[in-house]
Amino acid sequence: GYRARSAYKLKQLDEEVGLFGPGNTVVDLGAAPGGWLQVASERVKANGKVVGVDLQRIRSLDLDNVETIRGDMTEDETKEKLTAIIGERGADAVVSDMAPNMTGEYSLDHARSVYLARQAFEVAQELLATGGDFAVKVFDGQDLADFRADMEKEFQYVRSIRPKASRDSSSEQYLVGKHFLTAPVRKGD
Ligand code: SAM
Fold first, then answer.
1. Residue 160: helix, strand or coil by DSSP?
2. How far apart are CA 165 and CA 39, in angstroms?
3. Would 113 be classed as within a structural domain?
4. What angle do CA 150, 152, 154 make, to 5 degrees?
5. Which of 20, 22, 105, 173 is most buried, judging by how many CB atoms fall within 10 Å of its CB?
């Protein structure tokens, strides 16, 4: 079984838009307790690699193709560690299920969620190989349209998906950017 029900959301995203394939390198932001890591590990197979990051310690999954980092994705130190692991070839997919601690105040929760989503977007632009994909959780609200417009500049197209596994009342959705247009020139390219 999976460690988190959210595993089914990632499965649905992957089925709808095709995020992973065998041999892929995948970065998973906000990865604890590890449900998405389990799904990604299955999809990339033994010759792929999945790197998960979370503020919380991720209890070992005992999967040979998974590596985890404990860190805050809003801090440069964590981003640098991740870049060092991913290396010059870049990642095939960056996925983020990061969520703020909910206060119940709709506009505050939305603003914090967009802030985390933008952090993930920044990391995706640093790490993705050209043609790579990015999926990010974000809560509904007034800043969503601007964020989506910014993503649209960097990907061939963007889709918004509300997985069935998300609670009906939930304001969460996932924006998926397909086919990253231009990876930055990386050392060694
Ligand atoms: N996808 C995960 C799974 O399937 O097990 C569930 C992720 S949970 C919904 C959201 C996670 O985002 C939490 O574990 C939280 O610690 C993490 N998170 C929130 N802010 C973060 C940050 N700044 N840096 C790293 N992780 C963060």
1. strand
2. 15
3. yes
4. 85
5. 20
Length in residues, the chain: 189
Domain assignment present for residue 1? The answer is no
Q: State whether the beta carbon of 40 lies less than 6 angstroms from ligand 1.
A: no
The domain that holds 118 is classified in CATH as: 3.40.50.150
Is there an atom of ligand 1 within 6 Å of 72 CB?
Answer: yes
pLDDT of the residue at 154: 98
| Domain enclosing residue 121, as ranges | 7-127+138-180
Q: How far apart are the first and last CA of the chain?
A: 40
Residue 85 φ/ψ, nearest 5 degrees: -75, -40
Let me know if residue 185 belongs to a domain: no
- pTM over 0.90? The answer is yes
Structure ipTM = 0.99
The answer to the question of residue 2 being in a domain is no
